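Record Nuclear transport factor 2 family protein, 299 aa.
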Amino acid sequence: MKTSSIQNSILGLLVIGMIGCVPTQTTAQQPATPDPIAVAQQYIQVLNTGNLDRALAFYADDAIVHTPVGLFIGRAQIARWLASENQSTRVSPRDWKMQGALVVSTGTVLLERFVKAGVGAVEFRSEYLVDKSGKIRFFGPVLTLTPEQQQKMREAQAGAPPAPAPSVNPIEVVKAYHETANTGDFEKTFAFFADDSGAFVMNGTLLLSGKKQIADLWLREDVKTTRVMPREYQANGNLVISMGMVSLERFRRIGVDPIAYRAQFVVENGKIRFFYPTLQFTPEQLEKIQAAQRTPASR
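=>
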């Protein structure tokens, strides 16, 4: 599946019929939009110097960072994460590319907690969303350890006390959220989200920071007609992965239904703090989306 085609197709579909609502620009020249890859590259260069104040300046005020060690929303939380995790971090990117609206980077990284355990550089894949002002609004790194590196980490952690179990089973929270969402009761569904929650939706093209932004989008998107058909749940600590099928009104209208999905949830204290769903279209569904893009919206 060509992810960039999917995301671009979705974004195009979402703006069909909206062009007439956008004010016409009359200025002769618009400011140049920063290159997202260049912004992410500059961020890594600064991070590698250990200057965490300068690194923090790359983030938008409402940015979200989702890492293997936790979820951080807003610059105050991100500043604490940088100070605790990144003073000696050294990143060696190998590749940069655009994937829809996201910058995707792969390479290796040296992290202090791994170095102490005798684990050298580990593979990473990172996603960035950079806004039009050149600020990072989302950063999501994923680490991949080899079997040998995993064994070293297990040995290093052998004497450490086990991590405390979540007070509420996170899978049960997500299951209850899906069941409630399928009833169409907006207020009860929205109550599952923490006040400082975030969501990364529209296949990585739209970042929502805070409960109000999530609510505003849902009211516009008419989530009362959304139906989720989960097939599988997996949990790793407070991170829940849900996979299955979903039926969405905006795609039903063009004959694309149902759609496979994969969604990430971060659950803390029985509340959803982060929601990151991605839609996985078949080639036939993509053709219908592209055909809808070529067809003028009916009035």
